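Record pair follows.
FIRST:
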Amino acid sequence: MIKTRVKTPSTVVSRNSKGIAGIVTACSRRCVVVGLTSVLCASFVVGQSAGAPGSSQSAPAISISSGSKVIGPGDLPGNFRDLLKQMGNRMTSDTAAQVTLAGTITDANGSRPAQILVQSPGYLSYQESAQHITFNGTAAQTKAGQLTSGDQGIFESLLADFPDMIFLQVATGGSLRRIGSHFRTDDGVARSYSGPYWTLFAFSPKNRPGLARATPLQEEIFIAVDEQTELMAEVRTVVVSQAGQRNVTQTQFSNWIQQNSQWFPGKIVRLENGKQVLSFQTLNAGVGPASDPAVFAP
């Protein structure tokens, strides 16, 4: 088997032989600590500017980075444009500016019905019988006010890390870097490994008013894409505490389902340092036009 190598500013990784955990670990060993909780991996230092066409190109007629409410043709790098098309090309027109998932959330409080709503250019809503979390473009809130520590995991994994919101974040602007392809999800030792294989990206969002760095929508993330389905498989963050402890959060997307030429994650799982803390099982999903932004007020 021929092995190829991918070189990032501070890491050299052998593809076909190193798992995804290896590349994230390798990056985290060479991280620059920003403040007390955020980690900036060297993979983010040199990146492609997302959401901005080259200087020799004329500006697109539609551009979310310059005020449009939907993703325009120049808002995403080529590889991400292809991934959005594979998912169904939503968030690119007024008639497909909103995605809604109805299903069941399961966490330490048990199982209960819940709904996820993501709308271009970046509105978010999570609702269940006794809880409503919203993001109006500048702040995340509940009916009681600011998010509690218990709300943070739901907001991050079911809203901020949701695939459509990842595309909207990249379209809004930041630094996107393709780390490499054909990464395994195991430790890279077993010869009998047959998949899945992932292409890995690193993304650092641009600063957004009202949001603090090292928080959801303002944190550096790894994005893993399944090479067989060309659909998002995982969003991962690596944070180093002041004491030097490395904390890993993973939001995993699996069991993708197709409805009316659109693909939706059938299951969403949140892991904290390898332990599952919540899951969402999709029962119904759909795409439609945007709602009044007032819907995203708590």
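SECOND:
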Amino acid sequence: MRRYKMNQLFIRPALLLAFLSINALAVSAQTDLNRSINGLQSRYNRITSLSADFAQVHIDRGQREKRESGHVLLKKPGKMKWKYTSPEPKLFISDGKYLYEYADADNYATRSSVADSEDLRAPFAFLLGQGNLRQEFRRIEFSKESPIRAGNKVLRLLPRRLQDFEELLIEFDPANYEMSRLSVVRSSDERSDFLFSNIKENVSAPSVEFVFKAPPGVEVRDN
């Protein structure tokens, strides 16, 4: 009987200590998450424009991989200019209201409303808009997916409203909250990863940069 009571005296404090340790880890993880969300929100609230080189890796439902690269210019609110240089010249421009896409090999360009667009680059308009991460996404957590760059962290964001994607992954440097990758996941077997380098913030970005001018003989078709 005495041995049983002694075991109880040992086990109960041990269980309490284990519970407190687990709870402390959970609180620490939540604090880290909140710090990361606030850091990203604060950094991109201060940015009015951004330019970068990018590499895009798209995997479709057939698990086929397509790689493209080029230069991007973004400006609040919602203006984008993606100039693809490899494997073929292509231009994608948004003036905040319409999206235009044109490839040099085509004799036409397409135009669609930003509100109705299903393009995988559309989420970038939000990142340089006036949105609030906690308001736009119903769930934000650290992703189980490993970062591409050592030392970085990855957030997983699930949209609050019905979107053309299931989730976003944002990889960032926890030291300064600079984003180095944004992944748009449309389904379990289709996604696009955008990897950035040579990032420059608050660069000159006159509005004329986001006006699409069709080359002579090129027809603009509404999508």
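COMMENT: Helices lie at 2-46, 123-127, 133-136.
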